[in-house]
Specification:
The complex is a heterodimer of chains A (about 110) and B (about 110). Chain A is mostly beta strands. Chain A has strands at about 5, 10-15, 20-25, 30-35, 45-50, 55-60, 60-65, 70-75, 85-90, 100-105. The chains are: A mainly beta (about 110), B mainly beta (about 110).
Chain lengths: ~110, ~110
């Protein structure tokens, strides 16, 4: 079945620095979703991308879907301590999740 | 309030003692699924259900059973738990698969000794 690979596994940044996590698939994805899981919490839906080359923004978060619909990225500008958590991408068809990128932010 | 509930939230049990983790959603969602989360492995799907009486295996179904007799409930059954099933379990639901966000329950932390 479809697998989505996510990198990096961990990222530690200083508050105010930018952060990016990448999601890659060997096959074309009809859509991709992103979720955030705070420490001790459950995954919460952030956004869904559907169109080739799509870019969506949510305040300091920018989501991109590649032109070939095989990769996606989440970029956070000027990280804050509230951004701490694990970010997951999820492909369609049985909703396979990437392994996640755990973000820690040093104040 | 739209939500997915799971019970129990925490459970410590012994090898071989059958247990059931309940999951219920109040959003009339068709699609429900179970995941386990282990460090470094992300979320792995155990079973999913497209609708009542329609269940299918995910990536790691061994040692688990599910049933979907009612639309709102999707219990996870461990007939004979083993220590390698110690994990954090999440139930999730969505209106339909693939195109809609999944709503996750709060999680059940299971320890099998």
């Amino acid at each position: 079945g479809q697998q989505v690979m996510q990198i990096p596994q961990y990222q530690h940044v200083q508050e105010g620095e930018d952060f990016t996590t990448y999601c890659n698939s060997s096959t074309t994805l009809s859509n991709i979703q992103w979720y955030k899981q705070r420490p001790g919490g459950h995954p919460v839906f952030l956004i869904q991308l559907v169109k080739s080359g799509e870019v969506k923004k949510q305040k300091r978060l920018t989501f991109q879907f590649g032109e070939a619909k095989k990769n996606s990225s989440l970029h956070i500008t000027a990280t804050q301590t509230t951004d701490v958590g694990t970010y997951f991408c999820a492909g369609p068809y049985d909703m396979r999740f990437g392994a996640g990128t755990r973000l820690t932010v040093k104040p | 309030e739209a939500q997915v509930t799971q019970n129990p939230r925490y459970l410590i049990t012994v090898t071989g003692k059958k247990l059931t983790v309940t999951c219920s959603q109040n959003m009339n969602h068709e699609y429900m699924s179970w995941y386990r989360q282990d460090p470094g492995l992300g979320l792995r799907q155990i079973y999913y259900s497209m609708n009542v009486e329609a269940t299918d295996k995910g990536d790691v179904p061994e040692g688990y059973k599910v049933s979907r007799k009612e639309k709102r409930n999707f219990p996870l059954i461990l007939e004979s738990p083993s220590p390698n099933q110690t994990s954090l379990y999440f139930c999730a639901s969505s209106l339909i698969p693939d195109s809609y966000e999944q709503y996750f329950g709060p999680g059940t932390r299971l320890t099998v000794t």
